[in-house]
Design brief:
85 residues, alpha+beta
């Protein structure tokens, strides 16, 4: 099953483009980037730790390539949340 992940902006309260929503990527407020979507049947919402759109797109592509090759690059924070009991 292929992951359905998309880039989103996490707009700050002072951002002039906040009302345009998280899918508006050409933000003038330089807000942080994250990925959001479904991966392996679970909801994923992870920070990419960057504000640069090109860098975020590169990181998302790397994550999708790693997933296609069978190497899971899951954030350790996400592993602690979804740890099997």
């Amino acid at each position: 099953m292929s992951p359905m992940l998309a880039l989103q902006r996490r707009h700050s309260p002072k951002c002039p483009d906040r009302k345009k929503g998280p899918n508006y990527l050409k933000c003038r407020g330089h807000c942080s980037m994250r990925i959001c979507g479904m991966q392996n049947g679970k909801r994923v919402r992870t920070s990419l730790k960057t504000r640069d759109l090109q860098r975020a797109a590169r990181r998302l592509a790397e994550m999708l390539d790693d997933e296609a090759l069978g190497r899971s690059k899951v954030d350790p924070f996400v592993k602690t949340i979804f740890r099997p009991q």
